[in-house]
Each structure stands twice: as C-alpha cells, then as structure tokens.
Amino acid sequence: MLGFDTIVAVDWSSGNDTGARPRKDAIWAAVNRGGAADAPVYLRNRQVAEEWLCALFAAEQAAGRRVLAGFDFPFGYPTGFAEALTGSHDPLALWDWLAERVEDTPKQNNRFDLAGAINLQLGDGKGPFWFNGLARDIDGLSRRKDGYANPFAEKRQCEALAKGAFTCWQMGGAGAVGGQMMTGLSVLTRLRRQFDVAVWPFQAPKAQFSFIEIWPSLTVGPAPEGQIKDAWQVAEVARQIASLEVDRLATMLAVDAPEEGWIFGLGFEAELSTPPLRNDCFALPAGVHWTPVDEALDLLKDRLTAVTGIETLPATQALGRILAEPVRARRSNPPLPNTAVDGYGFAGGRDGGPHVLPLATGRAAAGDAPGQVKSGQAVRVLTGAALPTGVDTVVLQEDVRVAEGTIRFSGPIKAGANTRQAGEDVIEGQDILAAGRRITPADLALMAATGTRDIQLRKPLRVGILSTGDELVEAGETAVAGQIHDANRPMLSGVVSAFGHTCIDLGRAPDDRAALRARLDAASGKVDVILTSGGASAGDEDHMSALLQEAGAMALWRIAIKPGRPLALGMWQGVPVFGLPGNPVAALVCALVFARPAMDVLAGASWSEPQGFDVPAAFTKTKKAGRREYLRARLRDGRAEVFASEGSGRISGLSWAEGLVELPEPAATVKEGALVRYIPYGSFGL
Ligand code: AMP
Ligand code: MG
Questions:
Q1: pLDDT tens digits, residue range 339-377?
Q2: Which Enzyme Commission number(s) are listed (predicted)?
Q3: Rounded to whole angstroms, how far apart are CA atoms 424 and 334?
Q4: What's the pTM?
Q5: Which protein residues have their CB within 5 A of the ion that is ligand 2?
Q6: What is the 541 CA–ligand 2 centroid distance (Å)?
Q7: CATH classification of 462-602, choosing from 3.90.1150.10, 3.40.920.10, 3.40.980.10, 2.30.42.10?
C-alpha cells in the first residue's frame, strides 16, 4: 500500500505577497505523476498556495489517486515543546494549537507576536523563539538573541545529521524556518481537516494523502543557468521521489521520530540525488579529430552516474560491494577508556624515583564492566580491560614488583600512559566510510567495531558481454579454415568479474545488423551496461557502430591511444554500450583504461585512477608524438620489461605481461634506466 500516483513538492515561504511575476523566495510547487512532470507552479502568497493545494487535492481525490506531498518546513519541534505548550506530546495537537492562533493574510501575519506570546507563556520571554523582523518591538521576543535562554534543545535530532539546517526557533532572517513552520503547519492543519491525510512520521503514510517533511537542499544542487532555484528544486525533489522503487521508498519512510518528526531522505542523499543517465551522455565536442585519453576520461567522469539499484543488507554481507550511502559509527572505538597492556592501573602520573602503592583486591580483565578503585590504590589490569573508575594510568607489569599487597615501581610515568582513550580511533556519529567505497576486509572490521548493522549497498552492476564477427567460433570448439576462436569473451568476462561486477554472457553475434540488433534488444532489459568487442570502427562490416549510430545516441570516440582503434560508445534503449575494438590487445587496454572507471561509476563507486609507479626501464624505445601508448610490461629486479612485439593481435604478450607501461603523448626516446610509468594489472583491479 505504499505506491503513490502523484508526488507533490512544495517550497514554502513565510514572506508576504511576492507579486504577479514569478520570482525566487516565493512559494513554488511541483507535481510529478509516474515520472511525468508538470511545470513548477508559482504561488505568490500563502492564501493562493492554500487554494491551489485544495484544488489539486480535490482533483486527485476525485481521480482516486494516492498523493505523497512534501513541504519544506519541520513538522515537529524539539522534544518537550509540544507538551509544554499543549499538555500533550502529540505533535498534531500542537498543529491544532498553532492553527487556532496563527493569523495570516497576503500582506502580513502575526507570527512574531505569537512567538513572543509563547516565550512569555513558557517563562520570562527569553526563548525559545527569537528574531523580530518588524519595526516595532515585541514583548517577549528578542531581536538578536540578547539575553536568550532556551529550555529546549536548539535542534531536533534529525537536524544533527542535516548539515546547514536552521533551528526552528529562529523566526525570521535569511534561511530561517521558524516562520514558515507556523504559517505552513496552519495551512496543513486545514488540509488535514478537509482530506484523508496521514502525517509522516507521526502516522503511517497509508491514507490517500500523505504529508512528508522535505528539505530540497539535502538532495538538489544548484539550478541550471537562468532557472529559479526554488522552482528547479521542487521539480527535482518530486522527480527524485517519483523515480524511487516502492521498496526503496518504504525503506526511506521507515523512521521512528514520533515527536520531533524527520526530514525525508536523510541518510539517503546520494541515492536520491543521482540523476538518470542522459541519452547524449557519450556525445563528443564537434570538430575534434583525435581526443586525448585524459579528455575522454574527463568526459566519462562528468557524464556518467550510478545506474544500479540499492538494497539494505547487514554490514557483514558487504565484502566487495559498493556503499550507496556513507556509514556512520553507531559507537565509539574504543567505546570506553581501556588498558593497552597487562599491568597495574592507578590515578595520575608519577615523578621520577621509587613508588609504592597498595594493591586493591580483584582485577579488571577485557569484557568486565568497569569497576571502581579507591584513590591512592592500584589494581591489576589486563589488556583491553575497561579502566575502572579512578584509574587513568597503567604501568607495565614487567616494570613492577608485587609484594605484601603492594606494587613497587620506578617513575617517572606520564598520566594516561599505556591506556587508550574512548573514541581515540572513531567517535560515535562520525562518518567512517564514504558512499562509493568498495568494502574491503578491513572495512568489515571497522564497521563491526563501531556497531554497524544494516547498510545501504548498490546492487551489483550487471554487465552483458558480447563478441561480434563472422569469423568467431566458441572457445573449445572446432574451428575450420578462416575461423578463429573467440578470445575476447572469456577475457572480458574475467575482467568484469575481477572488477566485482556480475557477468551476463550475451554470446556471439555474426556481422549482420538484424541479428546484432536482436541481441541488443534482448539484452537491454536484463543488463545495466553492455561490453561488446569487434565491429566498432567505421568499415563496411562494423555493424556495432552502425547500429548505435542508427539509434541516434552514439559517438565514435577516436581516442589518441595505442593500441586501440575507435571506441563506439552509445545508448541502446537506455543502456550504455561500450563497443571495444576486436583486437584482443586493444580490447583489454581499452577495457582497463576506459571501461573500468566508467563501469565503476555506473556501479555506484567513486571514480578512481589506477595507481602507477615510476620505475627504471629495462628497454629502449622511440615513440612518435600524438598518441598515448600502453606497452605490455612486467617488473623484474625493480625494472620494467616490455614484451618483444607490439603487434595488437599478440595475445601471448598480454598473458606474459603483469601490467602496462604508460608512455605519455609527446614524442620520446626512452633509454634503458630512464624512469617510466608502470601500472600493475592489480592497480586496474585485476
Ligand atoms: P574488428 O574490430 O571487428 O575489425 O576486429 C579486429 C580484429 O580482431 C580482427 O582480426 C578480428 O578477427 C579480431 N577479433 C575480433 N573479435 C575477436 C574475438 N572475440 N576474439 C579474438 N579476436 C577477435
Ligand atoms: Mg569484426
């Protein structure tokens, strides 16, 4: 019952009528039905906005559509405020309370007076509200926080996670939400009375209309040139929510914040803000003949975004998977101060010279709840034990003589010696792993140590692999004269698996346009990206590039790289296709140099450059200017050797090599012993 037909996003304003011409800092609203977006609506004042919402809701109600409507102001105040004012913790009782008292017209409203009255009702008029935007003074409301005192928390719990969020106690000024909240909640209260509304997260979003609190800046970046920020933001938020799968929406709505409310999407920022791939994402600047490798890479980096879905899984199952959202420590590491050695603990450092301390009975071992030690006494402590109260310093057992209920040792010893401070490694609430990271075994340790449970992971990228060419027969089968074995598919499957993606074998296709088209059509629903080899150039039998060209979303990337003929990059029914050259050497080099970082991004990982090392050459070579060259290479005795032949059909050289030597674009004469850049296959993830 969580599917919504209509998503509405509203950017509220507590300012007065903004005039007939659409402008910023007014109220803006956007409607998105199943991905189809209406143009953002400009609402010049709150009364116009309320009428517009009523009319929209009546129409949606008549059409039997379920509506999720987001508003950009808090739905609740910090804990305790509702009860102090209304006698009830129920935030919706507070909504009613406010709606009865807020007076609002297009030209003015009483929010400052009401804030002052509340301050006086709750105490001596020093808080919680502050800021008066009017010329006249208001009893109980300070202009600039002078003498300010707030009996409640400054911010709600969710706002600690929302960097830059304003406190609801500030009633005006740039970015303030206090005024929007009072006026907005009053309007929403009237809508609640008129329609079947559930207010999230106080009520399960199961009514025909569900209201959620949104904060567009959480997931929407700056507006494109010439567009009004608020208009752009509401349209984007509506699109982001509309594009979510039902189970993801359910995950994001599973929030427990019964009094303060919650900002929708907190903790899911990366997922929500990922834009869809554009159909022209592989377009190249016109007129450029040979694109340098770095420029080609920059284009991929700029244009590509994650295409994989997201799932919630226990952290223990995350090895090799990509984080969709950052992981925050639920617990400090270490959680308590503890001893780093076996020894004796006591309070404070000691000067040089001999010391004798009475030894308390018992001991503190790892796993024991921290006990207590009297001042002036020492206690036996074992590595990892939480320090008992009254202990902050430990002396090594090797440096101590124990006799007759005392310990004896020589100073000096510094206060805090041989102990670990609580949180010295990680502090609770800190981001420990960034979105886009591929989880390593060490990450599993870090997450375990900091109490991580479920995390948001990208689903594995499904990569379809297709070989093209009339001459190809399957590896292991009999080849007749004129035929060769398909070597690229086994190789590219291995590459894709090593990269951590899921391989989907699309088999071989002949040099026939209709057959190839059928293959691509069949694949497009089942894979996230397609890697093909062969037929990527511009010749008679280069059907891959011809087909992508026909689809209208193709670019032949002539890249200044050797080995490597043109790459055919395009979109096939929304799926990106990397048409690699047929030559196995060129196919591998292009897969490592271009397809690897591109597929990483599609999979939700961060862009990464392979780590290279400058090492002396064990070869000599003269190269012409213009292209970047990759040589099959390996490291022996600290020097880079290269394969004897550079022929791009020499598969044995690929197998001989353990990495690539990268020679930059300018002409060069490499002499033995000169430094060259060596990139081990391992740096590419192989
Ligand atoms: P193409 O890019 O289709 O013009 O192919 C360039 C060269 O690579 C030709 O010699 C092809 O026979 C060869 N080739 C193409 N695909 C494969 C493959 N899957 N395995 C081995 N060689 C291939
Ligand atoms: Mg071919």
A1: 999 999 999 999 999 999 999 999 999 999 999 999 999
A2: 2.10.1.1
A3: 7
A4: 0.81
A5: 469, 534-535, 582
A6: 7
A7: 3.40.980.10
